[in-house]
Amino acid sequence: MKVIRSKAAMQRLADRLRSQGRVGFVPTMGFLHEGHLSLVRVARKRCDSVVVSVFVNPTQFGPEEDLEAYPRDFGRDRRLLGQEGVDVVFRPDAETVYPDGFATSVLVERLTRGLCGRTRPGHFSGVLTVVAKLLNIVKPDIAVFGQKDAQQALVVGRMVRDLDFDTRIVVAPTVRERDGLAMSSRNFYLTPEQRRQAPVLYRSLRLARRMVRDGERDAASVKLAMRRLIRRESGFRIDYVEVVDTGELQPVRRISGRVLVAVAAHLGRARLIDNIIMRA
Amino acid sequence: MKVIRSKAAMQRLADRLRSQGRVGFVPTMGFLHEGHLSLVRVARKRCDSVVVSVFVNPTQFGPEEDLEAYPRDFGRDRRLLGQEGVDVVFRPDAETVYPDGFATSVLVERLTRGLCGRTRPGHFSGVLTVVAKLLNIVKPDIAVFGQKDAQQALVVGRMVRDLDFDTRIVVAPTVRERDGLAMSSRNFYLTPEQRRQAPVLYRSLRLARRMVRDGERDAASVKLAMRRLIRRESGFRIDYVEVVDTGELQPVRRISGRVLVAVAAHLGRARLIDNIIMRA
Asked: How far apart are the CA of B102 and the nearest CA of chain A, in angstroms?
């Protein structure tokens, strides 16, 4: 397994890999867990070579967010990726990614306005800009994203189609702990007590699914029931509980067809998100 | 010479061409003149295959601008490009380039604030977004732009470096009529009388060069002299006369080192621009 730090070296290797077969790519911020590794396995299964990037991207963090605190352990990441048969780890430093004079950003309208976009202004532009760069550096045939970050996956998919990147975005299912908590590097921030409370987010999503299965079609009723369930655990500060269509991510009043039910809440030092897609 | 209208077909051909040698690309809005053809010749000389796009990009025109009136003659363009030994003409239609649901844009900060960016809000974002798309579709080793659109060339160069496109931007000199008028598809709008007046823009740039050669270092004095010269011809409405640094395109007060002297003015139905780079 090669570890590459230079953009130009990665591009030359990318040309060679792509000429030899299909290239799969998994962009990450490191501190890998089973969720990331499941994305790597999707790429491994579908492609001849697999590139994983490890880069904590500063531009997708807000000024009050956890850039400094974000957990890092490259030694462990490298070992895990080696065990998964990854061919190349691309690990640039921030000065390489954002040299002096950097002035460019990529935006996606509409889809970035609600959900996480509302309380994290600039977040998706940071994500899109770095993903555009990584796609131009790694030149993959497919790039795999996790369903846990549902809005990110949809927004990146929109950018890739709109800007005609010659890459297909594949979205892989959320991987959960045994008690239902969606895996996330940020779970690391939770105290034992908070870790015990955290699965209520997924339980609220399952409650939403049960209500819709039982015939509920009013989004407000579903959202209210979810909020009440989450509030039974102390310490949560809810960011949003939302039901949106899966195309433009606009809130729906009546649930019909395919919808995304999504939740975000602060618990201690962590901001946790989770979602499910369901069909009424 | 192949004419291709589909993005996917162009991408497949692009992969083949790039694997066989260097690919040169000249993006145009058609209605070609000697300026465009000089860019094609630069690409032809440096590369194994040459792709030219012909697409009047609606998103780079303002609501009050000349999108509808913009001159088009694809039969003539095709003949001229054939004579230059171009390999591929990529000529998509607007629905292919901007399908329903399109939501993405590319921005460059700072460099787009002044000069043409001031009176043409949205123009450079339109240019950058379509160029990003075209680079992902044509995958060229080099893309050739004209110095006549100086700000465009610098802004595109900034984007290409910032987003790590694996393409080098080459800027080729402005081609002029015998009386000095910079070639432009928009010269087509000029009446015979306006055509006679138009070269004063280039004369104002030469005046600036003479003044600086003779020791003038005050940008305001140079700009005032240029405005006075242009105003001797009736019918001009000056948009800007500016002296800026060639890095961030910020106005300078004292002229030293390398500067861009740029002018934009409306004359009848045409908005004309021109510029020179000089060193004090």
From this structure: 6
The pLDDT value recorded for residue B258 is: 97
pLDDT along chain A (280 residues), means of 10: 98 95 98 98 98 98 95 98 98 97 97 96 97 98 98 98 98 98 97 98 98 98 98 96 96 97 98 96
pLDDT at B249: 96
B159 chain-A contacts, CB cut-off 8 A: 104
The predicted pLDDT at position A51 comes to 98
Residue spans of the domains in chain A: they are 2-172, 185-279
- Classify the C-alpha dihedral A68-A73-A75-A79 as positive or negative: negative
Residues of B with CB under 8 A from a CB of A: 7, 11, 19, 101-111, 128-129, 132-133, 136-137, 139, 158-159, 162-166, 247-248
For B185-275, CATH gives 3.30.1300.10
pLDDT value of position A168: 98
Instruction: Give the residue on B whose Cα is nearest the Cα of A166.
Output: B136
Chain B residues within an 8 Å CB radius of A124: none
Q: With an 8 Å Cβ cutoff, are B103 and A11 in contact?
A: no
B36 belongs to the catalytic site: yes
pLDDT computed for residue B279 by the predictor: 95
DSSP E strands: which ranges in chain B?
A: 2-4, 23-28, 49-54, 88-90, 104-108, 142-146, 168-172, 236-245, 258-267, 270-279
Q: What is the CATH number of domain B2-172?
A: 3.40.50.620
> Among A4, A7, A17, A106, which would you mutate to test the B interface (most chain B Cβ atoms within 10 Å of its Cβ)?
A106
Q: What is the spatial distance between Cα A184 and Cα A176, in angstroms, rounded to a whole number?
A: 9
Note the CATH number of domain A185-279.
3.30.1300.10
Q: What is the pLDDT of residue A93?
A: 97
Each residue's pLDDT tens digit, B173-193: 999 999 999 999 999 999 999
Q: Which of A197, A46, A29, A13 is nearest to A97 (CA)?
A: A29
**Chain B residue numbers touching A136 (CB-CB < 8 A):** 163-166
Q: How far is B133 from chain A (nearest CA, A)?
A: 5
pTM: 0.97
* Region for B42 from its dihedrals, namely left if φ exceeds 0, alpha if ψ lies in -120 to 50, beta otherwise: alpha
